[in-house]
């Protein structure tokens, strides 16, 4: 390729560029060989002139200030503060010529380390953002790096683009960042190099393919800590496509960006940090910094209207990443972000009444769920990441996180600990105006399965979490056992136990509820309740299978951890034979904390016979005048009676009204196969 203008016929003796075009096997041109010193000086002047004519502020506006547009979402991706090198590169990428240090020797070993690490194989998403930072800084780096190092850096970045285009799936965030944004960044920043310009069409198509793919959202949620970085890349890609490829986002592209933005709003803590990460408000400040009112100064000077028909004040909007992301659907995302950040309240109104997104978000492919009683963050929120063998949770009581970390369960059969055999699988999901409900299960060794329920009672500010240990539906030796039974058909036998090989096995279910570091867990002196508090009481935990009073025997205990070697948690231990059901009721409503309360295990009848709790069980919870009931069938699907209500269901929850003895249904789960 020619890096300088072609010599005219009258000046044909001028030296031509020593860089030639070569075509790689992927069909794209690559920069080789390296230019000589004279050509490099001419090229560098062109690159610098273009950088001054087209600064980052021209592309990204005020978001380019101090490089923040390139740092959006990076703290959450790194699960901590942004490293100094990324900050330095982002500043270089958006700096004026007078701001560039001409002798920054720290960047030379940093670039060498980047190239060395690139030889080790494919990078993670943090490495992808690093590639974008290096590419954005290349114009400024012409004044800092030696020619050979700069050229090798460009060649490696182009190799990343070509490799990702050839091998990555379109729905992968790697495809968006490397095949898409990185390619367009090189084309925009280094438009004087033809091999970089050649990336425009394939990179723009890669971005469109990513946004059009039906699995894009689920794939993005597989790495929830990278959700903000993915959103930031989409925002930058939109501007790059508009300027470089002369293409605009379609409505379908904006819809994809809108859904990702809604997930970000749903998974944002009140301080702006992302749930299920260790980041702090200060570390993620660029994602939401500069909260400003959308109301103009002139409006503020007007006197308050006494008319009852006046419009409600607009929510306060975030700036930074969230401020830019909400523009994909301002009517919906502005109140969502504002409510998540505690800047406005929904006032008890339903989501559809004020154009808010849905209040339950679930991706069973990614194993991620957000359950919001309301978008008003004061109502608390429950988050679950069940993508791995050990589930991660974060539960908020109002604005404060009370539980955060791994929700780990140990199962012991006759004292022998069992191990998980696979990942969690969602088996039931339901949401309406009353509750959010999710049920999952995980297979364990020893022929058992662990089922877990999450139920958020939206208006009552209560959360029920339960673990159930059941016999697996299909025993490993079922065929052999059937054959053996056929050989003994003529011999009298006892009726088979519904628990199979677990009929006489003592089961111990130990669940560790991770308590946030800023919260203390204190057991009640007389009852088996556990209080969660910081400077004041925030929640009550009621272990429903336990005897209420500490005096006397019990099949269930709930005790805070006390040793330094144990994680900060509340350990709930429940024992039984054949099957075990271990629910915990968590109340976050402060007005109920000082009311009289009690809970009881209910008797369950089947065909006028009382049945043991390892077949089916029920519970009644009473706090003040408010009462709830639960029913869970562990074995068999039969008509049963509990608290005067006849049920044929796997699970039932309702509000109990003692005045008329009626039960208001909240949810009924029935595992009966369809007809």
Automatic annotation (TrEMBL):
Output this protein's name: Uncharacterized protein
What is the organism of origin for this protein?
Answer: Rhodopirellula europaea 6C
Location of the region described as Disordered in the Swiss-Prot/TrEMBL record: 1-27, 294-320, 479-498
Regions of compositional bias (Basic residues) in chain numbering: 297-306
Q: Where is the composition biased (Low complexity)?
A: 1-11
Can you tell which superkingdom this protein's organism belongs to? Bacteria
